[in-house]
Request: fold
Amino acid sequence: MDVKQRMQEIAQAKYGQELSQCGDGQLYHVLLQLSQELCQGRRAPAGERKLYYFSAEFLIGKLLSNDLLALGIYDQVSQALAECGHSLSAVEEAEPEPSLGNGGLGRLAACFLDSIAALGLPGDGVGLNYHYGLFQQELRDNKQTERPNPWIEDESWLIPTGIEFEVPFGFGPVKAKLFDIAVPGAHTDVANRLHLFDVEHPAPAPEGGIDFDKTDLPDRLTSFLYPDDSDEAGRLLRVYQQYFMVSAGAQLVLKELDERGHDPRSLSAHAAIQINDTHPSMVIPELVRLLLQRGLTMDEAVEQVSHTCAYTNHTILAEALEKWPISFIEKVAPQLVPILKELDARAKAAHPDSAVAIIQGKPGQEVVHMAHMDIHYGYSVNGVAALHTEILKGSELKPFYDIYPGKFNNKTNGVTLRRWLEVCNPKLAALLDQCLGTQWRTDPTQLNGLMDLYNDAAVLERMQAIKAENKRGLADALRREQGVELDPESVFDIQVKRLHEYKRQQMNALYVIRKYLDIKAGKIPERPVTVIFGAKAAPAYVMAKHIIHLILCLRQLIEDDPQVRPWLRVVMVENYNVTWAEKLIPACDISEQISLASKEASGTGNMKFMANGAVTLGTRDGANVEIADLVGPDNIYTFGASSNWIIELYDQKARDPKMGYQSELYYRRPAVKPLVDFLLDPVLTRLGDAEALKALWTDITGKDWFMSLLDVESYIAARDRAIHDYGDKPFWARKMLVNTARCGFFSSDRTIAEYDRDIWHLK
Ligand code: 26Q
Reply:
């Protein structure tokens, strides 16, 4: 096909204009149509067994560039646009970003769909079509406010399918309408689908912020994605959303099984359902219910479901493990209650230990423990990094591991290097082509070949030149979007991820305070550093919002201080999302991965940063451990207490609340106290809300549940060492090179190949 000619035809038909006369918004719609035509022409991958990846979140980001790459026409389109005076990056600006995820878990699901298609495997996503997605963040008066993010235009990536199912809620049936987004596989001729269910008459956006009447169902069922907090008023709606997704999704699975000519008694031979955290767990009782309706006995239904469903755990934070009051389920989907009770009774008969029960609690106050149901009635349980899986087996889920050792397995996360290297960092990708040939694009382990160039001065210099160009690109974007002027010669030190106490953005802020106080005392740092944050806080997560407030007040303090500003800058990117990530990650020198050891299941940002030649400053947590093993101690800065020690501290604390970790103790240390007390200093508090800062101070000096003070001294030392080392250009460039060279293991193609080999068995 002549790509440019087809673009011209579409432009003529749509707008009666030449390509050169079209605006960027029109060109985006031309390319949207072209991509959709090409996806339509692709076949679905064949296989005996088909995977359905059930997830409440798919953080897909903008799709245009990725789809053009997967369709093999990226270069042709870029050139065609250039020939008529346009640029693909300008056209991309016109694409709205779907925000169908909170963070890591949702972005992982998007990377997985990309890799499943690229490996030519039959596997579709199943989720919800949130109209306003995750909230859009605004930063005003040093605080976060939230607005809806309407991303669906008249013409969008969503393809109406005409397929509908009825979801039987307690209050009556609701129609679920299916929309699809095509997922073309790179270097293949196949495409899979992301299936998103929607209500028939979606409600308009609420006026003002994101608050709305959460009882106004069904029209508001698919309005918003729930932020990862425990907004009490929203909890019931969340269960409605989950049941809507899994009931429609389960009906889709059975419809496709039927269309392929298979009996429901052979479900597990022809379908696999991956349950992405516990959000879709109700698919288990729902499938049992639908199979009973189709004439299977309870034994047969349970047998099929237990060989169809597999569960991925993404967290060990107790507060994030979903337990729904049975009264909620009674209300949302009463028909599931007898099935849940039967599943619970069978589990209790086989395993009387109350720690592994599905239904727990006193009569009248029972809760359904979603993860427990998944483990009893799923055939696989996996963690998302080696350390995480070991913690699940050894402590969090130990009673289950003792019962079902064979079900547990590790699948270390990965990221699609197509989006997170090829598309977001074209200059580095071109250098890699020059050095290694293009095979690394299909086999990222080939990146190991870079190690042969460890002493190649020309390559090292080119890597640094590319980093410098990317830093200037980021500085340009921040000037355009936020009006801040950055020094691209300074060290770009970046922490971007959801705001959570366990991720310890507050510890990063304490480092900023350390440097501020040093400079004020006349102790000038070795070189200028720009500290960049990007983070959304769940609207109901008070402490997270206090931490944002602290960061923004520090920013203002430093911006207004001509003595400090040349050496230290703080930037908070407003509305951090996938689009910003694609600009930030290639421009990063130091990647902050500083979670409290044992708490970050894996992390995936850490992998994207290393691929783009950033050096990690991190704790021995999640996949950081595997990154450290791959790059070796000279190419990563690790610090802080070990996960074993942290787990021991929490155990001690559980045994005796007065023992164990005491932030008081750390607070008293002379190197720590002035940093924390700065939260009360009028120099700072006059810029913001003194009460909020006091509340944060009280928490850090008293409770500090996520131990931000435990590691703060070793953190400061490690960070200073990294900033010092940065000054030796060739020395630092080698670290960059090793990080890119060793990132192949973290390709989600590798992760998906393992899921298929060990869990799905699709072909
Ligand atoms: C639960 C109940 C009610 C409302 C919201 C939620 C909820 C929503 C989202 C709970 C958790 C999440 C998201 C979790 C998440 O993103 N986990 C991350 O998953 C990544 C992919 O495996 C890991 O790399 C990260 O370490 C992990 O934090």
About this structure: The mean pLDDT is 96. The chain has three domains: 1-41+63-96, 42-62+97-413+750-760, 487-740. Residues 232-259 form the longest helix (28 residues). Residues 1-41+63-96 form one domain.
